């Protein structure tokens, strides 16, 4: 089966959608303009190794992450170190608006940075870049981010890649974003830790978005209580939704794998196909709360497919492609991938693309592979974005286009585990800790997250002195707040934020 493909310029609306390993709470829309002239006959001499969906689960390292301070169970030993003590003091100072405490924390961080701690160097770069307890100095920020990157800080890699991207240094941006995106892809395919969700905009124009925020009050939320009531009365769809909420830690709840498994199993027992599919994935990966069991996975996926959940065919094909729990059978794998693809299954298109890219069970055809990747991307399949980024980066199958490669890599890189600050920023804001929320969104803003840039700028405008914005030596002056808000709005505007663009016009 070959996809229909126009030779005229194609306008593809690419959506990132919610799935287990690409967990996005709100769709994000990106437009690609691709013509027949973008294709390239060049092909690499040998197929590349691609990330595998059912690789062994592992903990993806995110050294220096601030997440252990919010969720100590992630890494209980880490929070006892001097680096985390200083960062904890930094956040406490932001919460209280205590400039003296902030100055002390900044001094501790600088001391550790000068002793060669890469994660302290990353935070010090952030302080210089934002002008927090230091005179704003972009050169020093860049220098310390370079040092931290060499020491393995993903936060600084993100900040540095974004700096290159903003400055139009696309070769450097694409190279660094490619490195980050590769780790990001591995994280949402095989990570033992909870998936991350796309950052939430806390405002709608000039006002707080109360409708969105009301859905993040955990078990006290009235709509969640209603959902639980429906599930307890036997509604299988409600059981599935509650299972997903616990699995991904949505709506202000912490991840709870045991509750997720319980609710999803109840839904599956009632014949709910999405739950069967999800449990099938869980047994195939062994990522959370269950031991890997390919036989059980195939059984559940087969049941889901019999209820016309065609995405299940894609995962069944993957089992046959790799011989997981069954004899390896390329013919059967292709049959299942095609069945998924014929019924708008993005994963089917993606995996057919991989087979043609590698020449697995079919004659290698890179251009046909790219056409499948485009269809998958058009349906919101995250790994397809990654494949297209690689084609634009290397010039294999598509003409080299470094700006496009950098943009697509950036899209994927932002779903790495370092995205977790968005969760803590949102929770801090909902609890009324505006100062901590502003600090966390500011940290994400320097890493290129457009929503965080907008949220941080809005907090400055909305809360003024109550934003607990820290300046060079004390709470921000009006001039410092205005300058910082303008810079944040400007960055968000350049990334397509329309309200930010209007705020720049008002300045």
From TrEMBL:
Secretion signal, residue range per the UniProt entry = 1-27
Q: Please give a single GO biological process term from the UniProt record.
A: ERAD pathway
Q: Which UniProt keywords apply?
A: Signal
Supply the Pfam families for this chain: Sel1 (PF08238)
**InterPro entries linked to this entry:** HRD3, Sel1-like, TPR-like_helical_dom_sf
Going by the entry's taxonomy, the superkingdom of the source organism is recorded as: Eukaryota
Q: Which PANTHER family match?
A: ERAD-ASSOCIATED E3 UBIQUITIN-PROTEIN LIGASE COMPONENT HRD3A-RELATED
Report the protein name in the record.
Uncharacterized protein
Instruction: Cite the source lineage.
Output: Eukaryota, Viridiplantae, Streptophyta, Embryophyta, Tracheophyta
């Amino acid at each position: 089966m070959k996809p229909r493909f126009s030779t005229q310029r194609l306008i593809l609306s690419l959506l990132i959608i919610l799935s287990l390993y690409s967990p996005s709470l709100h769709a994000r829309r990106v437009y690609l303009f691709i013509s027949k002239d973008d294709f390239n006959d060049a092909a690499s001499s040998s197929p590349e190794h691609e990330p595998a969906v059912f690789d062994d689960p592992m903990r993806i390292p995110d050294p220096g992450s601030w997440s252990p301070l919010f969720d100590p169970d992630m890494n209980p030993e880490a929070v006892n170190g001097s680096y985390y003590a200083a960062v904890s003091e930094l956040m406490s100072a932001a919460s209280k608006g205590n400039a003296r405490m902030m100055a002390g924390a900044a001094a501790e961080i600088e001391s550790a940075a000068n002793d060669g701690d890469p994660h302290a160097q990353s935070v010090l770069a952030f302080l210089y870049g934002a002008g927090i307890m230091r005179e704003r100095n972009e050169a020093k920020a860049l220098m310390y981010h370079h040092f931290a990157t060499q020491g393995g800080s993903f936060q600084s890699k993100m900040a540095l890649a974004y700096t290159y991207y903003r400055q139009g240094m696309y070769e450097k941006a694409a190279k660094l974003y490619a490195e980050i995106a590769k780790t990001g892809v591995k994280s949402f395919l095989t990570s033992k830790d909870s998936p991350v969700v796309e950052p939430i905009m806390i405002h709608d124009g000039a006002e707080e978005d109360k409708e969105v925020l009301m859905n993040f009050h955990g078990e006290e939320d009235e709509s969640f209580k209603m959902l639980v009531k429906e599930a307890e009365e036997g509604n299988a769809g409600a059981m599935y939704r509650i299972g997903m909420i616990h699995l991904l830690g949505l709506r202000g709840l912490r991840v709870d794998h045991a509750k997720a498994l319980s609710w999803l199993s109840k839904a599956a027992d009632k014949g709910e196909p999405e739950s069967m599919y999800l449990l099938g994935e869980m047994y195939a990966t062994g990522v959370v709360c269950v031991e890997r069991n390919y036989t059980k996975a195939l059984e559940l996926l087969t049941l889901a497919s019999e209820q016309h959940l065609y995405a299940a065919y894609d995962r069944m094909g993957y089992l046959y492609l790799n011989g997981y729990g069954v004899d390896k059978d390329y013919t059967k794998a292709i049959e299942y991938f095609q069945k998924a693809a014929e019924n708008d299954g993005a994963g089917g298109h993606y995996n057919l693309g991989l087979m043609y890219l590698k020449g697995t069970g079919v004659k290698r055809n890179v251009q046909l592979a790219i056409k499948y990747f485009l269809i998958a991307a058009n349906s919101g399949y995250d790994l397809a974005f990654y494949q297209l980024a690689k084609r634009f980066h290397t010039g294999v199958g598509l003409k080299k286009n470094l700006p496009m490669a950098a943009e697509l890599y950036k899209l994927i890189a932002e779903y790495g585990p370092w995205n977790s600050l968005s969760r803590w920023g949102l929770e801090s804001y909902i609890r009324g800790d505006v100062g901590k929320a502003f600090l966390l969104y500011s940290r994400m803003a320097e890493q290129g997250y457009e929503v965080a840039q907008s949220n941080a700028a809005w907090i400055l405008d909305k809360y003024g002195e109550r934003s607990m914005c820290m300046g060079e030596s004390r709470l921000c002056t009006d001039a410092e707040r205005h300058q910082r808000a303008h810079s944040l709005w400007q960055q968000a505007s350049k990334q397509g934020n329309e309200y930010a663009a209007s705020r720049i016009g008002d300045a």
